[in-house]
Every structure is written in structure tokens, then in C-alpha cells.
Amino acid sequence: MTTAGKLSRLRGRLARGVRKIKRIAGYDRRRREAISRLVAEHHAVTMVDDVLPEKIPAGAQAVLGYVDGEWPTYAQVKKEHPGVPVLSMAVSADYDAHGLDIEKGNAKIEEAPGWLQRQFATWAGEEWRPVLYIDKADAPALIAVCSAAGIKRGRYRLFSADWTYIPHICSPESCGATFRADATQYTNSPATGGPDLSLCSAGFFPGRR
């Protein structure tokens, strides 16, 4: 075999070796990400909410209640579920709460940056990340609007709605989302007849308010 032929064969072997290394590295990276996601979901908390507080069972790990709108349930569920995290949710950007419900008939995407800035000021001095609730399909637009306003993704908790009826937290690995949520509502009470269920990542509730 000529020298040129030997060099060509060597280059081919090197190229195959590089591709193999890249495949192994990619596999390891995906495995690490999958393990990290599974660990986070293993330590996750299931949050329950319903417009009818009596449907929320005793012993719930965490509860959501509304501070405004047609069903202001926050005060009642907080009283009835002592000792567990209770997330307050506003459906109008005019109200202050732990979270803002962004969907048709409630707050609008373009209202999110102003609402967030007000919450940052309201909770100044505390380690505080407000919550934005939105449908999975609309989450990328919300993230973009907040980013354009100078609010980085890490400054708020993203609470997505993805009614698969399978417990998960939206991510590229879990449901093909183009973003990573901090919590996901995976059931829809009108369809199930029971309360809504959401899976919240470990650390979603930094304190019990």
C-alpha cells in the first residue's frame, strides 16, 4: 500500500474514532440530564387546586388558592391546610400574589413584566421568585417577552399547563417542550371531575407562606 493510501486509511480510522467518542459523550450527557431530571421529579411535590376548596383532600403536599376572580379561595385553603405550602395565585395583573395566572380571560402575556417588577419590589430583601402560570404552547412567547424586558428566566418560576394526565415537569426530555418549567399542571379538573394536580420540582417552594 502506498504512503498516501496508508494516510487515507489512518484518517478514516481517526474520523471513526472521533465520531465514536462524540456518540459516547452525547450519550453520557443525555444520561446525566435524564438522571438529574428523574432525581428532581423523584423529590417533587404534588400541588392540588380546585375552585371548590372542599374538593382538595386533607393531606395534600401543597395547595394553590386564588386571591381574586370569581373564586377567591386562598384564605380558605390556607386556613384548612395548615403546615403545607400554599401558593397564592392572581388571575389579574392588578393583584399581588405568589403567582400570576396567564391565560384567556385572565392576565395577558404582555402584563407579565410589569407584574413581575412589582413583585420584586414587594418582596424586596427576600429570596423571592414569582410564579408565572401559562399553557405549554404559549410559554416560549412569555419567556421571550420577559427576556425583552430585561427579566432573565432564572428570576421567576415557570408553571406550565400540559394536560397529559401523566405526572411530569415540562422539559425537552419529558414532553418535548422547548423550555424547562419549574412546575407543570398535568390534569384538567373539568375532564377528570377532581381537583387539578401539578408536579412541582424540588425547591419550588423555598419557604412555607
Write a structural description.
By secondary structure, the protein is α/β, with parallel strands linked by helices. The chain has two domains: 1-42; 43-200, Glycosidases (TIM Barrel, Alpha-Beta Barrel), CATH 3.20.20.80. Helix content is 36%, strand content 17%. The chain is built from six helices and eight strands. Helix 5 links the parallel strand 6 and strand 7. The longest helix has 40 residues, at 3-42. It is elongated. The mean pLDDT is 86.
Topology, element by element:
Elements: H1 3-42, E1 45-49, E2 62-66, H2 74-80, E3 86-90, E4 99-101, H3 112-122, E5 131-135, H4 139-148, E6 157-161, H5 172-175, E7 183-185, H6 189-192, E8 196-200
Parallel strand pairs: 1-2, 2-3, 3-4, 4-5, 5-6, 6-7
Antiparallel strand pairs: 1-8, 7-8
- Order of SSEs: HEEHEEHEHEHEHE
Instruction: Assign the CATH superfamily of the largest domain.
Output: Glycosidases
Q: What's the level 1 CATH class of the largest domain?
A: Alpha Beta
User: What is the number of helical segments per DSSP (H or I, 4+ residues)?
Assistant: 6
As residue ranges, the low-confidence spans are none
- The structural domain count equals 2
User: What's the mean pLDDT score?
Assistant: 86
Shape: elongated
- β-strand percent reads 15-25%
CATH architecture assignment name of the largest domain: Alpha-Beta Barrel
What structural category arises from helix and sheet content? alpha/beta
Number of strands: 8
Distance between the termini: 77 Å
Helix content: 25-40%
Q: Give me the CATH fold name of the largest domain.
A: TIM Barrel
Largest sheet: 8 strands, mixed, barrel
Rg, alpha carbons: 22 Å
The protein's oligomeric status is single chain
What is the topology, as strand order, of the major beta sheet?
Answer: 1-2-3-4-5-6-7-8
